[in-house]
Amino acid sequence: METINKDSWKFCVAPMLGVTNRHCRFLYRCLNSHVRLYTEMVTTAALIRNKNIFSKYLLFDNSQHPIALQLGGNDPVDLAKSARIGEKCGYDEININCGCPSSRVLNGSFGAYLMKDVNLVIDCLKAIMDAVSIPVSIKHRIGIDYVDSYQFIRDFVGKIHDIGCNVFIVHARNAVLRGLSPKKNREIPALKYDYVYKLKKDFPDAVIVLNGGISSIDSIRNIENFVDGFMIGRCIMSNPLFLLDIESAFYKEEGVFDYNNLINILIEYAHIEINKGVQLRAIVQPMLNLFKGTNGAGLWRRTLSHTASLSNNKPELIYAAWDAICKRSSIL
Fold first, then answer.
1. Residue of 12, 24, 100, 124 with catalytic role
2. Is domain 259-326 classified as CATH 1.10.10?
3. Which residues are annotated as a binding site for FMN?
């Protein structure tokens, strides 16, 4: 494996099922040139058996680098095969999902369920690390069900760290495998940032990225000295312009953001994708929340959601939505 730069994980956009597809990631990259992007979780079964997997899940625009492929699975051989596919496709990192608590992953005995068997996780990571030359990381919770012990997560991370895996993306909540929906698993288990801080102290040479509950620049400023980076999901999904706040606050980008240029880029991208056979509805879906909180945001969303207009499959609908919001907003 290559030497890793801890700064590469300063800000990451979380893998979100049904959200962080390639169209969504293209938009996010337009708003922030530095954040690390992650795919939706892709299962090894889909990668190995689905002939259309490349166009459906693995294809991405070159502007999206650095970008990581998140894999879901529990078979070391299949994970190694899938990781090799990911590296061949040009991904910069392979991430294994040990944090998702949905019924889908529980039925397949992967995701957060894997945390019950650290030796299997180690076998999976070893197989991936042997198969690729790019960084390999793990995304996990701080515990399973109602086990409230720092020693549990320290032992889990310690055993994985011992085999040479050095990037840990830690969702600072337990995963309750039975009785809580995925949505409630993002809200009800208590956030325990102190556990993540302790991991950084105990494994100072590892990259420790905190996930969970980050919703403002102030919340990042308050804890940025305790970890190496932050992974942010729902906050960016509901308010993509938060990526601009990160860019200006932490990367000192100067000047006024050119929204007109953004709209032109998005329209050009839509033309290219539609010529490939993609429906406009899929392309604009990630844009719906783009101007959340801005006067005219509702009109923007309604314009891009209009069924009859979408059926025409014309990228100029994006400009029509922009023209409508410009008449209502002082964003220019």
1. 100
2. no
3. 70, 139, 171, 211-213, 233-234
CATH superfamily name and code, 6-250 = Aldolase class I (3.20.20.70)
Q: Quote the pLDDT of residue 296.
A: 87
Averaged pLDDT for residues 56-85: 94
The boundaries of every CATH 1.20.120 domain in the chain are 259-326
Active site residue 100: yes
* Residue pair 64/26 in contact by the 8 Å Cβ criterion: yes
pTM score of the predicted model: 0.94
Q: Binding site membership: which residues?
A: 70, 139, 171, 211-213, 233-234
- Residue 1: pLDDT band (50, 70, 90) is very low
From start to end of the chain, where are the E strands?
Answer: 11-13, 36-38, 42-43, 67-72, 93-98, 136-144, 167-175, 207-211, 229-232
- Name which of 163-172, 232-241, 253-262 the model is least confident about: 253-262
CATH 3.20.20.70 domain range(s) in the chain: 6-250
